[in-house]
Amino acid sequence: MSEKPWAGRFTQPTDKFVEEFTASISFDQRLYRYDIQGSIAHARMLARQKIISDKDAERIVYGLNEILEEINAGKFKFSVALEDIHMNIEKRLIEQIGPVGGKLHTARSRNDQVALDIRLYLRDELDGLADYLDALQGALLDQAEANIDVIMPGYTHLQTAQPVLFAHHLLAYHEMFLRDAGRLRDLRRRMNVLPLGAGALAGTTFPIDREWVAEQLGFDGVTRNSLDSVSDRDFGLEFCGAASILMMHLSRLSEELILWSSADFNFIELSDSFCTGSSIMPQKKNPDVPELVRGKTGRVYGNLISLLTLMKSLPLAYNKDMQEDKEPLFDTLDTVKGSLKIFADMIAQLQVRADNMRIAAARGFSTATDVADYVVRKGIPFREAHEIVGKTVRYCIENNKDIPELSLEEFQQFSPVIGADIFDFVTLEASVNSRKATGGTAREAVEREIARARQARGRN
User: Fold this and answer.
1) What positions does the domain Argininosuccinate lyase C-terminal occupy (predicted)?
2) Which of 78, 89, 245 is nearest to 176 (CA)?
3) Could you tell me if 290 and 342 are in contact, meaning their C-beta atoms sit under 8 angstroms apart?
4) How far apart are alpha carbons 436 and 126 in whole angstroms?
5) Cα→Cα distances 172→144, 260, 356, 429, 441, Å
6) Lowest CB count within 10 Å: 9, 148, 226, 296, which one?
7) Is 224 strand, coil or helix?
8) pLDDT-derived band of residue 281, with 50, 70 and 90 as boundaries?
């Protein structure tokens, strides 16, 4: 048998550079386990349907398991001439068990075979990503619980706005990652259908049992259209889209960690294990990990655009262009997995500078809104209250004071409705703990959310 599975049609050998240019074995070899897993299920189905004999199926399964051990042990020699993981394994199978190995490809094509392999691979990877994401969420919850009383400035436009609990700030990212986890679960459910049996594009004339194979491989069902089965890469696009959003969340958190760890903020201390120094400035401690994750976010965005561009004009069904789907997908998986793992470890070792956060929260008139709310409760319309407090803030700026430092007489020059009880409303604690509604920054609200998140983690 010729080394090329399609050599019968051709009279000239493939140019060596063309072989190298068109081969995918350098990157799709990571699919070997799934290619063998799918092939074993396919062989057993062929025997079950009397398309091949039970004896032939047993020999095929035995040979595939030997190849699996060979690859696991690093003894398998991959060949560029055989293009991809599918033909490398099939050729080796025929070498091991003889011509009967050639029966394995009955009733299937590399088109539906690769669609199966990628789905099996991505399904496993999604399960692994869910674990990494869960670890990061756990680290955020641990830090929130350990620092439940720490007050920091909340920002809008990166300007001091209102005081919030540091735990509340961390829980905002926990919510983002909850949505990310939900997107990955939804993707897994949508993609978990079997494409094998679609053949090259039109199905097969053999009496196969696709539903049995789907059950053996843990799929929820089978694809319903053979053309779509081999040309669909929506699951790859959807994953890269979900991964881009996830990396955007990590990038936003990275930016805050970078700011907070700077000397100007000094809100947190990153462990030395996640930082590097300068080759020239001995005092430097650079937050390289969050900076690199922030940078890698663009890489993941690029992979999404690459896949979208790849698929945008392809006619049905399979086209060689689609070989280019794997490297962006694999790179995205590797990048997201590494980013999640390192972030979970880094957040777990984060040290909080509570005193510095409190000092910063006390600056910038962060309780001004509380004064406005106080005046409203005294019967003043909010727009008038807003103007009253605006004038109060201007007075503070001109006299180099902050709102809690004003005397009652100074407050009352802006509104006679302000009484001595104003000082119960302008402390950081009063401001934070007055926001008790669900989703607010009061300690009791934050504690409820931590407990809810802990309970949800116990159920998952």
Assistant:
1) 365-433
2) 245
3) no
4) 37
5) 11, 16, 21, 20, 11
6) 9
7) coil
8) confident
What is the C-alpha separation between 355 and 266, in angstroms, rounded?
10
Residue-range domains of the chain with CATH: 7-106 (1.10.275.10), 111-206+218-359 (1.20.200.10), 364-458 (1.10.40.30)
* Pairing of the two strands 268-269 and 351-352: antiparallel
In a 10 Å sphere around its CB, with 0-12 CB exposed, 13-18 middle and 19+ buried, how is residue 104 labelled? buried
Non-local (6+) Cβ contacts of 212 within 8 A are 45, 48
Distance CA 443, CA 303 (A): 41
Q: What are phi and psi of 164, to 5 degrees?
A: -140, 165
Side chain identity at residue 247, one-letter code: M
CB 110 within 8 A of CB 91: no
What pLDDT shows up at residue 210?
A: 98
Between 234 and 455, the more confident residue is 234
Task: Give the whole-number percent of the chain exceeding pLDDT 70.
Answer: 95
Contact 352, 166 (CB under 8 A): yes
Query: Is 251 within 8 Å of 293 (Cβ atoms)?
Result: yes
Compute the radius of gyration of the chain from its Cα atoms: 31
**Residue pointed to by tokens 């074993």:** 40
Q: Is the sign of the CA dihedral 374, 380, 384, 387 positive or negative?
A: negative
Q: Specify whether the CB–CB gap between 318 and 201 falls below 8 A.
A: yes
Predicted confidence (pLDDT) per residue in 235-279, tens digit: 999 999 999 999 999 999 999 999 999 999 999 999 999 888 888
Dihedral sign from CA coordinates of 129, 130, 135, 137: positive
SS3 at position 275: coil
113: Cβ–Cβ under 8 A, 6 or more apart, which residues?
A: 35, 38, 86, 196
Give the C-alpha distances (Å, rounded to integers) separating 243 from 111, 237, 343, 389.
26, 10, 15, 44
Q: Which amino acid is at 180?
A: D
Handedness of CA 377, 379, 385, 391 (dihedral sign): negative
- pTM value > 0.85: yes
Please choose, from the candidates 126, 30, 146, the residue with its C-alpha nearest in 3D space to the C-alpha of residue 333. Answer: 126
